[in-house]
Amino acid sequence: MSSECCSTPKTRTINISRIVEWQRKNRDHVRRKLKDSQDDRVLRNKASRILKESGRAKKCIVCGSTRDLEVSHEDNNPKNFAKSNLQYRCNKHHKTKPKGTPQMKVQK
Known about the structure:
- This protein has 108 residues and is mostly helical.
- It has one domain.
- The protein contains two helices and two strands; from the N terminus they run H-E-E-H.
- The chain has helices at 16-53, 91-95; strands at 69-73, 86-90.
- The chain has a two-stranded antiparallel sheet with strand order 1-2.
- It is elongated, with a radius of gyration of 26 Å.
């Protein structure tokens, strides 16, 4: 029999200060990420509310679909809440919208 199978495993020395520092950094990162996601949600809700109040038909301006609609900003600026800047797009056309280019006219 070899003596290796019965030997006790080596233990690692844990540096508590390094663990505490990692936890602090990670906590701050998670807090920033949570705040950013909350800010994004507030902006999306505001844009959606303004577009609903405008009385515009709830359909995609590209294909006319009424399913899976998202609010889109024509100028790609999520802080521009002008009614003329907001439009409905279906999920497919919202994701394929070219960035920084003028968009097509709104369908009536």
